[in-house]
Amino acid sequence: MTEMEHDVVEETQYQVKLNAFTGPLDLLLHLIRKHEINVYDIPISNITQQYLEYLNLMKTLNLSMAGEFLVMAATLLYIKSRMLLPKDEKVEKEEEGEDPREELVRRLVEYEQFKDAAIRLSSQERLWRDAFFREPQPIESPGVPEELLIEDLSLFDLLGALQEVLDRTASHTLLEISPESITVQERVNALLDRLEGEPALMFQSLFDSAFSRPLVIVTFLALLELVRMRLVRLSQGEVFGPIRVTRTFSPGLREESGESLANGVG
Asked: What is the CATH number of domain 147-266?
């Protein structure tokens, strides 16, 4: 993270709490599926590099990470080192057929089975809920942070899309920008202005005018803020497909509410 990027994130004091099924094994499964990798023959060097890139991006965005992410990073690096070091012939004969990735593969396959079972149970629960409808009771939980409202995609899909934008963005700043001139508040206002005129936008188009990494990052944080405020919905038509940003408010609502939407950032 550059000094300017650090200042931008520190200024916002913005944190995103990862939901259920967003642990290190989920990130690995996401990378394996995205790159169509055979889980029984993982290219450990490439997958480790991509995993560390995601962790670095999560750190840049001030995402709250459990220690398991770092433990998994250490595990991947250990496996990578074992596969790179030359083997002693005698030891190789004694351990013939042993693969350093074997335990990781077993954990991934087992976890994927449990995850798929949970998804099936969740779908069944929705069917039962529709069949035996009950008026929901209001639940008040002040002080509890709201989860991100994203449909048909995971937070890792969102991070992957952000990484693609960052890869296209020049690492140097074309114009002199001080951290104080880039705020989430301003980017929220800018995104709301665009959504006033267009009911839906593609994720990539939000960064057309972002010519520096700090501006890309603060725009992304502004998008997360709009999702938290339930002003936009994120969806993905197909697996690993383009991400669509759709407004959930009516045009003109900001004027009617005296700009209260934008002033609610925080």
From this structure: 1.10.10
Its pTM stands at 0.71
In the chain, which ranges are E strands? 16-17, 63-64, 200-202, 232-236, 243-247
Strand partners, 234: 150, 245
Report the alpha-carbon distance of residue 75 to residue 44 in Å, rounded. 11
- Residue range 35-57, pLDDT digits in tens: 999 999 999 999 999 999 999 98
**232-236 and 16-17 beta bridge pairing:** unpaired
Alpha-carbon distance 70 to 135, whole Å? Answer: 43
Average pLDDT for 188-212 = 88
pLDDT tens-digit map of 82-139:
888 776 654 554 455 578 899 999 999 999 898 888 778 867 766 766 666 566 555 4
- What are the extents of the domains in the chain? 12-145, 147-266
The contacts of residue 162 (CB under 8 Å, 6+ apart) are 57, 216, 220
Q: Count CB-CB contacts under 10 A for residue 53.
A: 16
Buried b (16+ CB within 10 A) or exposed e, 119-133: eeeeeeeeeeeeeee
- First CA to last CA across the chain, in angstroms? 23
* Nearest C-alpha neighbor of 231 from the set 197, 210, 254, 208: 254
Side by side, the strands of the sheet bearing 200-202 are 200-202, 243-247, 232-236
- 162 closest CA partner among 109, 118, 216: 216
Query: Is the separation of the CB atoms in 149 and 231 below 8 Å?
Result: no
